[in-house]
Amino acid sequence: MSEPTDRGGPSEHWLARHPALVPPVSTAGAAVVIVLREVTDDVEVLLIERATNPQDPASGQVALPGGRVDDDDNSLAVTALRELEEEVGLTEGDLDGSLRFVGAPVARRFGLKVGVFAAKLADRGRGPTVRSAAEVAHVFWLPRAALLTSRAVERETSRGLAPVRATVHEGHVLWGFTRRILREFFELPEEDDLVGPMFAESSATGRPS
H or E segment at 12? Predict the structure, then answer.
């Protein structure tokens, strides 16, 4: 496993493309944070595996730390920092500089616009830990290089059970919205979420059945 390093470089390259600003209030219903840490040969991204909960539509999924906007949150940045602390115990003081606003893409499966932020873990920053076992089952770091490859896995999608493109790392399966925004953040080629044709062709007509 690569060791963290204090040298500058990779994180700044990815963060420099995004402004350190506070987006308008109410531009999204949730917020997440891409937390980077530098290692000897690359960067890693902090991810969580959500706890199993039949009431949670994202039960058991790998995701970025984050959650829905509360009524008391006066900005998406406040939401992002609050959820970061509640889920993995990191505060603004554990980050190197201000949050960078990446964008507010739509998580299509949930019909929800999500504010995406990014930041680097400070050299003096504490390590992330599971703060609430009811929400988070595991915390782990994903090497950026792992996103370069994909594997077909079956998952329940908005179109039913289907093979999807996924990144599998140490038993954790990353797919869907989170994988898509990370690949976009690291400027990797866009991929279709589903593997193979969406509809089987009829041999008699040559048309979708």
Answer: helix 10-15
Strands 30-38, 112-121: pairing kind: parallel
Q: Which residues pair with 173 in a beta bridge?
A: 168
- Condensed to tens digits (0 to 9), the pLDDT of residues 165-198 reads 999 999 999 999 999 999 999 999 888 777 765 4
**CA Rg value for the chain:** 18
Asked whether the beta carbons of 193 and 165 are under 8 A apart, the reply is: yes
CB 76, CB 67: distance < 8 Å: no
CA distance 199 to 189: 24
Domain locations in the chain? 10-145
pLDDT in tens, 34-91: 999 998 888 999 999 999 887 776 778 999 999 999 999 988 999 999 999 999 999 9
Q: Give the helix/strand (H/E) hosting 167.
A: strand 160-169
* Burial bucket for residue 7 (CB in 10 Å: 0-12, 13-18, 19+): exposed
End-to-end CA distance of the chain: 48
Reported CATH class of domain 10-145: alpha beta
pTM of the full predicted structure? 0.84
DSSP 111-122: TEEEEEEEEEEP
Q: If DSSP codes are grouped into helix, strand and coil, which group holds residue 66?
A: strand
